[in-house]
């Protein structure tokens, strides 16, 4: 077993090869050495064409017929099927197995009691991880050693930036900011495009303008350490056009208030997920 031996590469067994599972596997498979990975096994009873293609092209083993106790077990199924998956997964877990879950809401306590593992990581990645531009925050159980934390850092770094280990009590907040965050950004693109169409722009042009604007703003933030607030102010001329739009967006609590309410509601849903699955 190599689960807690950083100088040896690990066998990673991923359960759930959907959108998030594929994003992670892509990251590991494009540089196995950097991720500290020897072999990637992927278990999914309904593999998509995208998953089959990834495994065929990059050499991951899809639905292996035999699984020995594993070094690192990654759980990337929907929280609602966790209990079913955990009863199978428990067969492949021993005292050195590191269990890493990316499932929203499922606590370290539940991960331990249902898989039998003691070394547990609760992580929250996001879909930009598929292109190495993600951010993942994680927390660890008390049985994890500094070497385990280092190994998790290497695994998650293939998706982009990593924050952690954090106090587990913060993971629901992390989920609603960065785990779900790409959806808010895509909604912003949709809303900007719809606003442009309402002002007479042709649909395709409005979509390209909105999409490229958000891409450009992201790249600018990536390359310029100026705060988001100051970057916003740099666009907002005194008595100008941007200010007219922002005053509408910020009126009566505006977008800040909507965001706080939305994130609080989503955080409550994340807490509920651990109970209703
Ligand atoms: N999609 C996202 O942006 C993010 C998702 N997550 C978490 O990742 C997890 C997976 O989400 P998605 O990838 O979006 O869902 P998905 O629906 O795309 O993928 C789930 C996969 O699990 C497979 N599956 C179902 N039952 C299974 C079983 N018994 N054994 C093995 N595989 C099984 C399905 O065939 C499917 O391919 C969720 O728990 C979610 O909270 C976390 C961060 C971001
Ligand atoms: O919507 C969800 O439940 C998952 C968690 C973070 C992003 N997608």
Automatic annotation (TrEMBL):
Residues annotated as domain Pyrroline-5-carboxylate reductase catalytic N-terminal: 12-105
Gene Ontology molecular function: pyrroline-5-carboxylate reductase activity
Domain of life according to the entry: Bacteria
Encoding gene, per UniProt annotation: proC
Major place of residence: cytoplasm
Pathway in which the depicted protein is active: Amino-acid biosynthesis; L-proline biosynthesis; L-proline from L-glutamate 5-semialdehyde: step 1/1
Organism in which the protein naturally occurs: Hirschia litorea
UniProt cross-references to Pfam families, sorted A to Z: F420_oxidored, P5CR_dimer
Similarity-based family: Belongs to the pyrroline-5-carboxylate reductase family.
EC identifiers of the protein: 1.5.1.2
Broad EC category: oxidoreductase
Domain Pyrroline-5-carboxylate reductase dimerisation intervals: 168-273
Protein name, per record: Pyrroline-5-carboxylate reductase
Key words, A-Z: Amino-acid biosynthesis, Cytoplasm, NADP, Oxidoreductase, Proline biosynthesis
Localization, UniProt: Cytoplasm
Reaction catalysed by this enzyme: L-proline + NADP(+) = (S)-1-pyrroline-5-carboxylate + NADPH + 2 H(+); L-proline + NAD(+) = (S)-1-pyrroline-5-carboxylate + NADH + 2 H(+)
């Amino acid at each position: 077993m190599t689960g807690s031996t950083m100088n040896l590469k690990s066998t990673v067994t991923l359960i759930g090869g959907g959108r998030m599972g594929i994003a992670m596997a892509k990251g590991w498979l494009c540089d196995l050495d950097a991720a500290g990975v020897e072999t990637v096994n992927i278990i999914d009873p309904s593999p998509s064409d995208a998953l089959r293609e990834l495994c065929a092209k990059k050499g991951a083993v899809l639905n292996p017929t035999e699984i020995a106790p594993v070094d690192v077990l990654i759980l990337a199924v929907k929280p609602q099927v966790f209990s079913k998956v955990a009863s199978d997964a428990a067969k492949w877990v021993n005292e050195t197995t590191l269990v890493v879950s990316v499932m929203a809401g499922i606590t370290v306590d539940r991960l331990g009691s249902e898989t039998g593992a003691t070394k547990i990581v609760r992580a929250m990645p996001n879909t930009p991880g598929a292109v190495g531009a993600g951010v993942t925050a994680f927390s660890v159980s008390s049985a994890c050693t500094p070497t385990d934390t280092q190994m998790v850092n290497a695994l998650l770094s293939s998706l982009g930036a990593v924050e952690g280990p954090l106090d587990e009590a913060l993971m629901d907040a992390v989920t609603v900011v960065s785990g779900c965050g790409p959806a808010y950004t895509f909604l912003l693109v949709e809303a900007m495009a719809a606003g442009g169409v309402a002002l007479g722009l042709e649909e395709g042009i409005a979509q390209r303008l909105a999409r490229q604007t958000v891409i450009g703003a992201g790249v600018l933030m990536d390359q310029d350490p100026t705060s988001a607030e100051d970057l916003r102010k740099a666009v907002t001329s005194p008595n100008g056009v941007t200010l007219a739009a922002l005053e509408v967006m910020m009126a009566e609590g505006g977008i800040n208030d909507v965001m706080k309410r939305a994130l609080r509601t989503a955080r409550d849903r994340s807490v509920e997920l651990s109970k209703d699955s």
